[in-house]
Write the C-alpha cells for this entry.
Amino acid sequence: MNIIKDSSDVKESHRLKIKRSFIGVTLIEITIGLAIAAVVVAIAYRGYEQNASRNQVIEDSRLIAEMMSDIINNFGPSSKFGDLSTAIVITSGTIPSRYIDRTTNPPTARNQYGGEIFVAPVGVSDTFAYIRYEKVPKRNCMGLVMLIAPSAQGLAVRPSVDNSPPVAAADWNIKLFDTSSTVDLNELNTVCRNSSITDVNVTVGFSKS
C-alpha cells in the first residue's frame, strides 16, 4: 500500500516539475516576445517621427518660398518693401487663411508649431525684407534651412526667445545678406544642435528683385 502511494507521489511530483518547467519556458518566451515587440514599436515610432518631421519641413519651406514670391510680386514693383508688415501681408492674401489668427487685432499669422510668422523690412530699407518663422523644432532646423537657403539672400537662426530684428551684418549668422555668400554649415550645426534649446526662430532675408 505504501509502495503504491509512494509511486503516486513520485508521479505527481514529476508532473508538477514538468508543469513548472512548461510555465517557466512560456514566461521566458513571453518576455522575449515583449522585448522584440518593444524594439519593433520603437523602430516604427522612430520611422513615423522622421516621416512626420520631413513632412513638416516640406510644408514650412513651401510656405516660406510662396510667401517670398508673393511679396516680391505684390510689393516689389511698387517699391513698397519699406511699408511691409505682417498685417499688410495678411490683407494682401499672401498668407493662406489656415495660418491666420483672427482672434488678435490686428490679425497675426502662426505656423504649424504655434510660432508667429512675422514680416518686416530690413531696417529702413525699401529694397530688402525678411520673414521670421518662429518656434521651429530643433529637429527640423537644419532641414528647413538647407531647403530654403538657395532662394534666400540672408539667413539667421536664433533661439526662439530671441526676437530681435536683423540689422547688422553679424545678425545674419547663417548666411550673410549677400547673393555670393553661402551657408555657414559650422554655425548652422552649432545653433541647430544646441542642447540648451528646444526650438529656434528662422529668419529669411530677401530683396524685391
In short: Confidence is low (pLDDT under 50) at residues 1-5. The helical segments are 2-75, 86-91, 138-148, 185-192. The beta strands are 100-101, 108-109, 117-121, 128-137, 154-159, 199-207.
